[in-house]
Write a structure and sequence with these properties.
With 203 residues, this protein is an alpha/beta fold. The chain has one domain (2-197): Alpha-Beta Barrel (TIM Barrel), CATH 3.20.20.370. It is built from 9 helices and 7 strands; from the N terminus they run E-H-E-H-H-E-H-H-E-H-E-H-E-H-E-H. It has helices spanning 16-25, 36-39, 43-51, 66-69, 72-90, 106-113, 135-145, 169-184, 192-197, and strands at 2-11, 30-34, 55-58, 96-97, 118-119, 150-155, 187-190. The longest helix has 19 residues, at 72-90. The radius of gyration is 16 Å and the shape is globular.
């Protein structure tokens, strides 16, 4: 079976549990890149993510452009504060991060590596964050473009700098449409670490 990784940024939010319900119904695992500010408000959802076999990653505390707008100390503070909160909630260190806006460079990666973090790309990034995008378009895009060993970048939350009435209901609807069809096509949905790191050594 081909492997693929679904990832979700900007949560946890009011839509995260609907995403978790769909993943459970379809036997899928995923990675959630969480904002520290959002995780602090929904600790029970963070614990549910891990309890159901998914992976949590670091998406910064407040969603800035880390490479473009933050000096070294700000980068460290955004990642370290989120790391500490997530480890406290789930009981184990976080291994992966994703910069907001995929705004990463060698400097940010070097700082993150001192915190035990590796950046996670998005090979396919459907525009589920755009206002007015249709769920049918998102589902079709995923089904047409998804390839073996790729990471798909989606959003289950809304960053603090977006409009208060922004919704991720469209992402949930698209997920309900394409998840069972991915499985029918032979894709096994796994966490980003399972996909990118491979199976752990038995030694």
């Amino acid at each position: 079976m081909a492997g693929i990784s679904l990832t979700f940024d900007d949560g946890p939010s009011a839509w995260t549990e609907a995403v978790l319900d769909l993943l459970a119904a379809n036997g899928a695992r995923a990675t959630f890149f969480l904002l520290g500010s959002a995780a602090s408000e929904r600790p029970e959802v963070v614990r549910r993510i891990v309890a159901e076999g998914h992976e949590v990653g670091n998406h910064s505390w407040s969603h800035p452009h880390l490479a473009r707008d933050c000096d070294d100390e700000q980068v460290r503070r955004e990642l370290e504060t989120t790391n500490e909160l997530l480890e406290q909630l789930v009981g184990e260190p976080v291994r992966r991060f994703r910069c907001p806006y995929y705004d990463v460079d060698e400097r940010v990666e070097a700082i993150a590596s001192t915190l035990g973090l590796r950046h996670t790309p998005g090979h396919l990034t459907p525009p589920d964050w755009k206002p007015g995008v249709r769920s049918s378009f998102l589902a079709t895009l995923v089904l047409q473009l998804a390839r073996d060993e790729e990471v798909i970048g989606l959003h289950d939350g809304v960053p603090p700098d977006e409009l208060a009435d922004a919704s991720r209901a469209t992402t949930v609807e698209a997920l309900a449409s394409f998840l069972p069809r991915l499985r029918e096509r032979g894709f096994d949905c796994v966490t980003a670490s399972a996909l990118l790191d491979g199976p752990p050594s038995s030694g």
